[in-house]
Specification:
The chain is mainly β. Helix content is 4%, strand content 57%. Strands 1, 3, 4, 5, 7, 11, 13 and 14 form an 8-stranded antiparallel sheet that branches. Strands 2, 6, 8, 9, 10 and 12 form a 6-stranded antiparallel sheet that branches. Strand 8 and strand 9 form a beta hairpin. The chain is elongated. The two termini are 29 Å apart.
């Protein structure tokens, strides 16, 4: 999906051309942690506001000649203002990354735990244990949560432009021993985390 807006993470992410035409207006996007130093991330939003994504230039590691370990995290947050007359039907988190590891003497994992308007998504984690070789310059994983229409419509439809938070913790870990190798963020494939929302019309409940 083409993303048409790019800006530094520290800037306000209020990127829709007009809230009347958008499902969601995003603002106050932040990222903090040892895996995302200031100035190494960008935020993108689709024109209708249904999707927001963080892309990290330096969220990764390259381990060899063990013993050696790496542990990274990045806490994400953004405020969402919802167009009146819509309620949340589905929430999806999607992660893309590139990684490689040797079959022996290495392990690697990458994952995310997210919530939106206080609702938790299933944990998204990809693990590559010792004994398994892995080499992919572009890998993706996703988890979705379908919400109960009656409960969601009762919450969203009675509020004028509901406001809530998307929050997520992105994490990665690696370990090598002996001649093992493990690397995340390879061949220019930066780690990206997307939040994808599906909105339904309150008048059709």
């Amino acid at each position: 999906m083409v993303r048409t807006y790019l800006l530094p993470l520290a800037a306000l992410v209020s990127m829709q051309t007009g809230f009347a035409q958008s499902s969601v207006e995003w603002s106050n996007a932040t990222a903090s942690g040892n895996g995302c130093p200031i100035g190494t991330s960008i935020v993108t939003v689709t024109p209708g506001g249904d999707e927001i994504a963080w892309t990290f230039d330096t969220f990764g590691f390259n381990l060899s000649r063990g013993p050696a370990t790496a542990s990274l995290f990045c806490r994400l947050s953004a405020s969402a203002r919802i167009k009146k007359g819509l309620y949340l039907g589905r929430l999806t988190q999607e992660m893309t990354y590139g990684a490689t590891k040797s079959a022996r003497g290495s392990s690697l994992s990458v994952g995310a735990q997210s919530r939106f308007f206080g609702k938790n998504l299933p944990e998204l984690i990809q693990e590559y244990p010792d004994g398994i070789e892995f080499d992919s310059p572009l890998q993706s994983a996703a988890s979705s949560f379908d919400l109960e229409p009656k409960l969601e419509s009762e919450f969203f439809c009675d509020l004028p432009n509901p406001v809530g938070l998307f929050q997520s913790t992105l994490s990665a870990a690696g370990r090598v021993t002996g001649s093992g190798t493990a690397a995340l963020n390879i061949q220019g494939q930066n780690v990206t985390l997307r939040a994808i929302t599906t909105w339904l019309d309150c008048s059709k409940v």
